[in-house]
């Protein structure tokens, strides 16, 4: 297999939330695609946050494209010159008011959707979390913090008892696997 060749790129839209780029691409077989759209986003971070009482800290918020309320792990993007870890800690603090004295553990880094997006999501585990702050939300955010038993949360996912998204499912499974492996050592 060979890579595609980008012949030309132009921006259709730019905003603080992300850009839309239109590429003209030549495939290895010679076919030219004149309108291949790429969504450019900042890298995202998210975390499974677990309290000392073994509760998972989640956020519930309205998602316009999904036309409903979704239960999710805290997440966001880096700002300025923040490292991924710094952006994560800030996002968790702002969205939930939770923090931890333990350093976040990187569980994985994945392309979000390499067919149409250029960013990655880095998933972390934060253990021994405790509530220390009030939420500090942007004007466009309306977030409720919800706590669930960590060990039971997978059942809620598998039985569709909650409305969530793929990033939360992936993060939960990565965290559960990490914790099980650690317990077996």
From TrEMBL:
InterPro entries (alphabetical): NUDIX_hydrolase-like_dom_sf, NUDIX_hydrolase_CS, NUDIX_hydrolase_dom
A Pfam family assignment: NUDIX
EC number(s) per entry: 3.6.-.-
Gene3D superfamilies given in the database record: Nucleoside Triphosphate Pyrophosphohydrolase
Top-level taxon of the source organism: Bacteria
Keyword set, alphabetical order: Hydrolase
Cofactor annotation: Mg(2+)
GO molecular function (one): hydrolase activity
Domain Nudix hydrolase: 40-180
SUPFAM superfamilies: Nudix (SSF55811)
Protein name per Swiss-Prot or TrEMBL: NUDIX hydrolase
Classification lineage: Bacteria, Bacillati, Bacillota, Bacilli, Bacillales
């Amino acid at each position: 297999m060979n890579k595609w060749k980008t012949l030309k790129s132009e921006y259709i839209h730019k905003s603080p939330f992300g850009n839309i780029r239109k590429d003209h691409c030549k495939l290895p077989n010679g076919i030219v695609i004149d309108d291949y759209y790429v969504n450019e986003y900042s890298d995202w971070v998210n975390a499974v946050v677990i309290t000392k009482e073994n509760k998972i800290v989640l956020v519930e918020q309205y998602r316009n494209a999904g036309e409903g309320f979704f239960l999710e792990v805290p997440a966001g993007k880096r700002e300025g010159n923040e490292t991924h870890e710094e952006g994560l800690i800030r996002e968790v603090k702002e969205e939930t008011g939770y923090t931890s004295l333990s350093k976040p553990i990187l569980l994985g880094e994945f392309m979000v959707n390499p067919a149409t997006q250029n960013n990655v999501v880095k998933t972390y585990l934060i253990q021994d979390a405790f509530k220390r702050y009030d939420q500090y939300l942007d004007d466009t955010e309306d977030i409720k913090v919800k706590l669930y038993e960590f060990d039971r949360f997978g059942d809620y996912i598998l039985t569709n008892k909650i409305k969530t998204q793929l990033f939360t499912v992936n993060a939960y499974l990565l965290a559960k696997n990490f914790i099980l492996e650690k317990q077996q050592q």
